[in-house]
């Protein structure tokens, strides 16, 4: 764990301006910002806030980056990850995907860590007639959004990815759907924060709740801070429980996902895939070292993170039907994580208007990695008292509060 920071270094030009946080200054014992949650979202917000000149404390119940961020596959696939009716989520995802190249470059430049951002493109494979029709609908949405897409015959798809099963019915090529390595992103963010003199990271802090004074939020656990960012993923509702009596709801629930990591059984084997392959119920994500991520289940099982025989059976059945040669790979890891789901699958981002001092960066459901850059920008802007263009009603932190629902 890094040592306590000297305060005030790295103070940015916008520090202390606007309607938002006034940075407390060198002599104050309080951090300017407490961030609860050291997943990709919390770390990215902390990084941005520190770069804006804030003194930041990040608190994490377990090890940093060890929850959903450790399990995530890292697809940057806004269209495929939103349902057809989820237009606001789609727009947010497209916006964040556009921010990823600069975010990755900045992080790499700051730390020297390669975050695994690769412009691979994606094949969306149809293995039956229903999936082929779904692909027609997805192609129409992509065309409407101006996102490049090509419909491929099975033979064309197999020329691009020879490991695809001969039985596939066709595919879409989405050349703009890329990938990043979430574990490398966490490593880079941690390197950036640990090197920053005004950031403190406290891991293994246990289950913490927000400190409150009426509806105002004054910190987390024992830590008092000028502003508090709730970025606790699936644990966010419990952390915000003290605010329920003040009409503030953070309705985030755990949605379990099981994944397999596979790697070549013998040294020197060519990689199974060149690019991400998606299909109706899952995906295969190749990494440069030959590892392939096979995911993922979607389960409402509370906080259970056991890997089950049924989960593995479903994943391996998909593998057999989509890329049968993958069954020859060795199993490197089985893992389960908890997506932070909201009632509309869209995150809660920014300053909460009814809970002074509270900023939300949670509820990212399937899109935590995709949405990291826009989350960092929206929340850091809120901390400065500014507004990022992506902030708005679709991500409004108060939209599930009883007062908003009744209005
Ligand atoms: N974003 C992939 C998943 O949630 O499984």
UniProtKB/TrEMBL annotation:
- Give the first-level EC class, as a single word: oxidoreductase
A biological process from GO = thiamine biosynthetic process
What GO cellular component entries does it have?
cytoplasm
Q: What is its EC number?
A: 1.4.3.19
Swiss-Prot/TrEMBL keywords: Oxidoreductase, Thiamine biosynthesis
Identify the metabolic or biological route this protein is part of.
Cofactor biosynthesis; thiamine diphosphate biosynthesis
Reaction catalyzed? glycine + O2 + H2O = glyoxylate + H2O2 + NH4(+)
Name of the protein in question? glycine oxidase
Species for this entry: Paraconexibacter algicola
The gene designation is: thiO
């Amino acid at each position: 764990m890094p040592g306590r920071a000297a305060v005030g270094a790295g103070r940015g030009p916008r520090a202390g301006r606007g309607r938002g946080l006034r940075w407390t200054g060198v002599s104050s014992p309080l951090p300017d910002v407490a961030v609860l949650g050291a997943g990709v979202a919390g770390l990215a917000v902390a990084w941005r806030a520190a770069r804006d000149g804030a003194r930041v404390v990040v608190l994490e119940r377990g090890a940093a980056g060890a929850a959903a961020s450790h399990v995530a596959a890292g697809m940057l696939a806004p269209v495929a990850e939103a349902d057809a009716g989820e237009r606001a989520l789609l727009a947010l995802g497209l916006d964040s995907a556009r921010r990823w190249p600069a975010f990755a470059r900045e992080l790499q430049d700051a730390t020297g860590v390669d975050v695994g951002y690769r412009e691979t493109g994606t094949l969306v494979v149809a293995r039956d007639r229903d999936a082929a029709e779904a692909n027609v609908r997805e192609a129409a949405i992509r065309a409407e959004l101006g996102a490049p897409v090509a419909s491929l015959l099975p033979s064309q798809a197999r020329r691009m990815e020879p490991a695809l099963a001969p039985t596939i019915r066709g595919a879409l090529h989405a050349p703009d759907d890329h990938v990043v390595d979430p574990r490398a992103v966490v490593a880079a963010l941690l390197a950036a924060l640990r090197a920053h003199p005004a950031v403190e990271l406290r891991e293994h802090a246990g289950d913490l709740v927000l400190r409150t004074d009426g509806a105002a939020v004054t910190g987390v656990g024992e830590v008092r801070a000028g502003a508090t960012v709730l970025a606790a993923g699936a644990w966010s509702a419990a952390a915000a429980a003290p605010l329920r009596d003040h009409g503030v709801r953070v309705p985030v629930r755990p949605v379990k996902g099981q994944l397999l990591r596979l790697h070549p059984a013998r040294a020197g084997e060519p990689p199974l895939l060149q690019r991400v392959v998606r299909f109706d119920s899952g995906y295969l994500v190749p990494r440069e070292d030959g590892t392939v991520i096979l995911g993922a289940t979607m389960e409402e099982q509370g906080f259970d993170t056991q890997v089950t025989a049924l989960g593995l059976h479903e994943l391996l059945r998909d593998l057999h039907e989509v890329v049968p040669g993958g069954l020859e790979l060795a199993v490197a890891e089985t893992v389960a994580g908890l997506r932070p789901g909201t009632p509309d699958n869209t995150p809660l981002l920014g300053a909460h208007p009814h809970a002074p001092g509270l900023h939300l960066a949670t509820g990212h459901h399937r899109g935590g990695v995709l949405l990291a850059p826009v989350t960092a920008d929206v929340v850091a802007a809120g901390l400065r008292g500014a507004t990022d263009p992506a902030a708005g009603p679709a991500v409004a932190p108060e939209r599930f509060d009883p007062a908003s629902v009744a209005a």
